[in-house]
What does this fold into?
Amino acid sequence: MSTVEYVRAQDVPGAIALVAADVAAAYLAGGTTQVDLLLKDGVGEATRLVDIGRLPLAGTEQVGDVLRVRALTTMADLAEDPVVIARLPLVREALLAGASPQLRNMATIGGNLLQRTRCRYFRDRRVTACNKRRPGSGCAAVHGPARMHAILGASENCIALHASDLCVPLVALDAVVHLQGTGGSRTVPLTAFYRVPSQRPDVENVLEHGELVTHVDVPLLPSGMRSAYLKVRDRASYEFALTSAAAALSVEDGTIRTPRLALGGVGTIPWRAREAEDVLRDAPATADTFRAAAEAAVRDPFTVPGTEFKVELAKRTIVRVLKDVSGVPS
Amino acid sequence: MTTVTANKIIGEPVDRIDGTLKVTGAATYPSDVTYPGMAYAVLVGSTIAVGRIRAIDTVDALAAPGVLTVLTHENIPSLPDAPASPFGPPPRFPLRDDRVLHQGQHVAVVVAESPEQARNAARFVRVDYEETVPVLAIDDPAAPIRSNPFGTDAEHGDVIAALASAEVGYEETFRTAPVTNNPLGLFATVACWDDERLVVHESTQWPMQARRTLAGVFSLAETAVRVLVPHLGGAFGAGLRTWPHTILTALAARLLDRPVKLVLTRPQMFTAVGHRPESVQRVRLGATREGRLVAIDHEGTAPVAAEEFTFDRMTTGTPDAYDCPNVAVRDRLVALNIPNPGFMRAPGHAEGSFALESAMDELAFRLGIDPVELRLRNFAGTHPRTGLPWSSNALRECYRLGAERFGWYVRDPVPRSMRDGEWLVGCGMAGVTYQWYVTPCQVRISIGRDGTARVACAGTDIGTGTYTITAQLAAEMLGLDVEQVHVELGDSDLPPAPQSGGSGLATSLAGAVEDGTRRLLDAFLDLVGTDDRSPLRGRTRREVTANAGRLHLVSDPDAGEPYAHMLARHDLDELTVIGEKIPDPQAPGLDMAPSGASAAQFVEVRVHEELGMLRVSRLLSVMDAGTVLNEKTARSQVSGALVMGIGMAMLEETVFDPATGRITNGTFADYLIPTHADIPDVDVVFVGEPDRVNPLGAKGLGEVGLVGLPAAVANAVHHATGKRIRSLPITIEKLF
It folds into this structure.
């Protein structure tokens, strides 16, 4: 019988030890969608789930100009956090644009960071060609109806989207992930946490087996910075983004300072748009600048029939959010 | 009505009498039923679209914990074909042979002691397929085409000549996406044999047809089969056929001699119980410059599954929609390797209306005539094919009141002329006519010694309020309070009723209740006909009124007595009658055409100019449904249909993988039905007079609210953006 063993962890070191000792073990927490993957879709690999839901890993704490968000903080709680409301409006907007109220009540920040792709070719065990599940088997999604797939960081090997809304502002803000393993703790910038599929779509991030996300440090926006998260989708609620963008910047005398920009709905990983930031930095806050930044952000997309429209839609999404945060009229 | 009643209950917005049961979780849905010793079945679906099963290896599945049996085409007994229904042959039975004709076709049934064990073991059923190339595209030249499959292609007048000579011509092609019914309640079957009697708790809209199917397949008398469905978590047409999973569950129960339960999974709801097929439609119009239609030519093509039949006719509403002397309609089916389409709320009509009502909007725009005015100029004041007057028809009032209430004439009719910040604003409308459908129905009505009534009927309440309107009808006609009427539904042992479908049950049932209450009052008057102690002795129904639990003379309210007294004096526990309605639209002397409901739909949309996002911001449906039996449940039903129309217009599409035929979005995270945030305030207004043919003057309104909505949205999108979108759903990539 293909059983999945359920274990409730008693403390953090115990949880880590349990998972680290078993290559087929995985953490279970809100938003990891392990139940969907294992029981409904039949595509999960784990045979032992270590439930960390009752560990003391929830809540936030302001440390100087950083908000420390523990991994089991729910999306709903983080969206109502006073520091998030006051200092990280783009994070709040992304949280409230994600999932549904019921899911936000259950999903955790750690689970959100580590959510698996929604690719319906990945999540269907009848599909044999999936490099994420079976390295080297190919990618069936590139031939299929693909409007919910990625165009950046994608290739013929994999076009699976990282569908998180929250991670888009977090990469824009240079959030830092804190990891704890059997050998100790380390930190990884979120921008370096995910790996584009390239030749190894099955390797999605830099986590070592058994490492646990304990918290995420989110730098607060300096005062004077304006920020926004814009999500484009057909359904007004509970739909993943076709395109989205998180932006933060300030404008001094018509000149853009310290721009931050990241994209969702288009990347195999939460997509920091550094080339666009280079265009924006110290440039005049004009529609032309924004369009040039958008062109830089979506350079060399990999498209298939069904995702071609996302190239222009993503650019327009960028322009729109930059206009919003800079106060430039349409 | 021939019985004078004192209290007005019919039409009142009475709360659902089953509401408390439902919100407290006490209502029993088919999936809630359990029996001692019950086993659980899980379906194994094919993972190819077409081919043969070379071998099925069930050894490991059978060895898995708790497994009782694994049924496949290799080990089940041969069963007779299910009988046809009035709407065509039964679905193909998949375990008849080794052939696979669509993705997800049932290839095995695993039965175990628990649902978890069955689901676990289902993964160990290994099927070795010999796969061939599927035919999946509606325009694939390899796909077999069936012309005029319904025998309904028709023409009146000379369409070719009229199109050729028309002052203004129009021709466009429209496409609608396949969509799936998706009732929230997963379909379930619980089958239990007791000797040669079969009891099935079944997600069905039609217990009598389910009974007939099971009796036929298992060679039983129909009375040896009982189908129960007191409550159903929606169906929207998916429950109008008895699908193979029902037969397989009953078969498993028989072979194991144990009750067996099967509940479909959400992905299986996409492949096992039908869907609204995609369509390709060509509409040609001919008109005068003043906007009088001279020709309509409507051709519809939709897929059907290989070796299957479906009754989904895109042109169904076109011949009677407008006053036009030359009309031709043609339908074709294209056989593909897809799960069989079935009925989905306003089947064919919803898709056909999108094409025709979009075309009318385009014609209005090209002619420079207001869209409402164009429809008024072509209003069919009499039945277009027979010239008979309608039994009722307030469509013009729907247009007039709708335009006024919506502020239609306040808008600037020029496309792209209205905006609200970054959002382009547009208004659109569509006219709707719907076919008449009433069908035979019986009810049993009793009044007992406690003075309360019981009404019983095999028909189902699929969530629309059938319990409540039945109680209202009986209460008013018998002079009782709604709380004094107990209603039993959803049991094939009760008097036979038609399906809850085709917008026909409420009207059919109303006729049967009306007839039954008359008979019951007659029975009471007969009872006391020679009773010296009764003030009603020797009286006829026309002389009496039912009120407050008693009958009394119209002329003297004090001369009367309660039902309970009459029963007690005659030492009876109850009086019971059967009421019946047998409609006959061709009855001799009926010098009118029975009319269905009609409506005018008005929609305001907003389209984000840069990003293409579409949002519906206002929604008005003005509807002629004749006598409305319950203002609240009627409004709910129309509102729900409008929401479904928004889904069809801008969100819903069942996405098939073009290479394999696999459905790629068969979950509620991926298949988009409207959420609360997508729906603005919904304004539903009823107009019109009691219908002159139908019982109580009521006209069915179960489906009509959906019809016209997609066209109204598309027409509003054109007004907002200047873009004419002729394919559904209208998504961002078509608009930005």
